[in-house]
Amino acid sequence: MDTLAEQIRNGGYEPGQRLPTEPEVMAQHGVSRTVVREAISRLQAAGLVETRHGIGSFVLAPVPSAGELLAVVTLRDVLDMLELRISLETEAAGLAALRRKDEHLVQMRNAVNEFEQELMQGGKSVEADFQFHLQIALATHNKYFEDFYRHLGTTTIPRTRLDTSQLSEEPSSDYLTRTNREHADILDAIARREPEAARAAMRMHLTNSRERLRRVYERNQNAAPATANS
């Protein structure tokens, strides 16, 4: 029944659209009325639908203010976001190594390959980057990791707000190649079902990004007084 939530979040149902009736959902998914009602209750709690008694359940429009409040707009914001991601995604990687299914590995590999292809075409590979980390969240089978990642969307990827590859001391293509190589290391650990290795690879991946940008941030902070006095 998580399929309904997935379809709503992916735009399968438009805001204002009525969901299928209970009997229709029961027939489509082969589940009981109790399961359907519990699923609808979860969708209501998540703010995805509202139920109008005697009429049906309707998809709600997403709330834009949450994304705006959490938008990453400065280098300091990027560092703070990475600090949060290190805390959450390190554990997510460990859980994914324990709980992942083969289909999660397929999607992670697809994301790594798409990242590489976009990089060869001169792109920033933001969507592929996001999808890789989202698949890890899904592989935890903990809806709160998934909700966190879907809620923030691609704002979790620093270069959606700042061109961090240009801020790095290494060339842009090298920066992104290194990023995807780190993705591959995380994937390998998850595929081997080694939670500690997965945690270590994720922590290294995000910490490397944070440290590269921290050096830029500190350099800019140290240069600011001199600029003001010139």
Instruction: Give the helix tally.
Output: 11
| Radius of gyration from the alpha-carbon trace, in angstroms | 21 Å
First-to-last CA distance? 63 Å
**Parts with pLDDT < 50 across at least 5 consecutive residues:** 64-72, 226-230
* Global outline: elongated
Number of strands: 2
Helix content: over 70%
Strand order of the largest sheet: 1-2
Order of secondary-structure elements: HHHEEHHHHHHHH
The CATH superfamily of the largest domain bears the name GntR ligand-binding domain-like
CATH class of the largest domain: Mainly Alpha
Question: CATH topology of the largest domain, what is it called?
Answer: Four Helix Bundle (Hemerythrin (Met), subunit A)
Q: Strands, helices and their partners?
A:
Blueprint lengths: L1 H8 L12 H8 L3 H13 L3 E4 L3 E4 L4 H6 L5 H25 L2 H19 L5 H14 L3 H10 L11 H4 L4 H20 L3 H35 L1
Antiparallel strand pairs: 1-2
Give an overview of the whole structure.
By secondary structure, this protein is mainly alpha-helical. The chain has 2 domains: 58 residues, Winged helix-like DNA-binding domain superfamily/Winged helix DNA-binding domain (Arc Repressor Mutant, subunit A, Orthogonal Bundle); 157 residues, Four Helix Bundle (Hemerythrin (Met), subunit A) (Up-down Bundle), CATH 1.20.120.530. 70% of the residues lie in helices and 3% in strands. The chain is built from 11 helices and 2 strands; from the N terminus they run H-H-H-E-E-H-H-H-H-H-H-H-H. A two-stranded antiparallel sheet has the order 1-2. Helix 5 runs parallel beside helix 10.
